[in-house]
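Appendix C: a fully annotated inverse folding record. The material below is reproduced so that readers can follow the format used throughout the book. The structure is listed first as tokens, followed by the designed sequence.
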């Protein structure tokens, strides 16, 4: 089922999310719904708060990037990278910081350069509640960091300089008022 994506200004996007247990009600259905919602909006990551749930769960599927000529060097790593992250904890961020132009399904029509470390060490459970500790680099690390921020109550716009924040303030206000055109279901703050 495709769920409405919460827009900037919704309080759930600012919540530090809580952990869940393996007996979380209808977890498999929720994971399927997150992937379906993300794919229908042409996203490559989606976190539970973006559909109104303050739980530590997010999904990523960067396989569409494998077809992009900008990622030809890492196409093999990207093509099957579809994962579920439950109760994730980033243990370490390392390497050089690199800028990349990010966007977010909850903040449509706003894209800005964000600096993030190139490699992460992360502990998480998969959809079968099997625990993993993995290292990821490149676009995989970036997408995971972006989604991880969501379960911490952080948005990519929080990483912007004061000047950039001032420049996007008007756009963010319009989004929170529902004054934005998107091709996917959205729910705006009341």
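Designed amino acids, in order:
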């Amino acid at each position: 089922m495709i769920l409405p994506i919460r827009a900037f200004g919704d309080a759930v996007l600012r919540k530090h999310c809580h952990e869940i247990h393996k007996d979380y009600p209808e977890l498999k259905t929720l994971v399927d719904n997150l992937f379906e919602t993300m794919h229908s909006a042409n996203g490559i990551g989606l976190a539970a708060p973006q559909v109104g749930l303050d739980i530590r769960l997010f999904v990523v599927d960067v396989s569409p990037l494998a077809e992009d000529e900008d990622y030809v060097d890492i196409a093999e790593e990207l093509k099957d990278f579809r994962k579920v992250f439950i109760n994730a904890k980033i243990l370490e961020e390392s390497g050089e910081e690199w800028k990349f132009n990010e966007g977010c399904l909850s903040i449509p029509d706003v894209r800005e350069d964000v600096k993030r470390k190139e490699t992460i060490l992360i502990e998480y459970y998969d959809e079968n509640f099997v625990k993993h500790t993995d290292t990821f680099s490149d676009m995989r690390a970036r997408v995971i960091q972006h989604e991880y921020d969501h379960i911490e109550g952080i948005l990519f716009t929080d990483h912007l300089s004061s000047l950039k924040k001032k420049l996007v303030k008007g756009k963010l206000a319009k989004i929170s008022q529902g004054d934005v055109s998107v091709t996917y279901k959205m729910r705006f703050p009341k």
